[in-house]
Amino acid sequence: MTKSNAHNKIDLKYILLILIAVFLSTLFHELAHWCTGEILGNKMTMNLNSANVISGEYKHEWNRNVITMAGPLFTIFQAIVIYFLLNKYPKKELYPFLLFPFTMRFWAGLANLLGPNDEGRFGLSLGIGLLTVSIIVCCFLFFLVCKSSKKHHFSLKFNLISFLLCSIFLIILSFVNEYFKLRII
Predict the structure, then answer these.
(1) Angle, alpha carbons 94-99-105 (nearest 5°)
(2) Which residues of the chain have pLDDT under 70?
(3) Count of domains in the chain?
């Protein structure tokens, strides 16, 4: 097996890394919302798929946009850090932590069509539309994924299967969270 083929192999270890990336990335995305809200003086609650003001009212109306964008900004920051770590330490094991932020924000962008979420709410509050911020975020994250994928010779098949696994694990996480009514904080 050539190095390139081995590098594009999806084995149980890699699948478990994707699962870990999905869980930790989602958890820290929501923690970013929660921490920002708490720092701004809003009493917050959080589960694996959302963070909300307990009272339903923000302490100050401007808090809404800051708290809303804290999660996506953390996710973008994660992707940038992992992108540079992958450049310095070319380890396939880091890749799910770069690919999942794109996957997460891609599906969140599409979910805006069902009801505004992070980037959708922010875009509407700025008067630039429901999908504008989502498209910008997804394009940036996709750019990082493409550059890294090209540099490390990850095949299209490897990327598509990885994207599919990220998506499946995200759906499972969302359903588990909803079914068991998980509350972290």
Answers:
(1) 140
(2) 1-4
(3) 1
Question: Is position 182 within any domain?
Answer: no
Domain range for 104 is: 3-177
pLDDT at 134: 98
- The Cα–Cα gap between 176 and 158 comes to 27
Report the alpha-carbon distance of residue 7 to residue 94 in Å, rounded.
12
For residue 184, is it within any domain? no
Predicted pLDDT of residue 3? 56
- Asked whether the beta carbons of 79 and 144 are under 8 A apart, the reply is yes
pLDDT at 132: 98
φ/ψ bin of 127: left (φ > 0), alpha (ψ from -120 to 50), beta (otherwise) = left
Closest to 123 in 3D by CA, of 111, 114, 135, 110:
135
**Which residues are 44's β-sheet partners?**
53
pLDDT given at position 7:
82
Q: What is the DSSP string of 108-149?
A: HHHHTTTS--HHHHHHHHHTS-SSHHHHHHHHHHHHHHHHHH
**SS3 state at 46:** strand
- The whole-angstrom separation of Cα 141 and Cα 102 is 5
Instruction: Tell me, yes or no, whether 185 lies in a domain.
Output: no
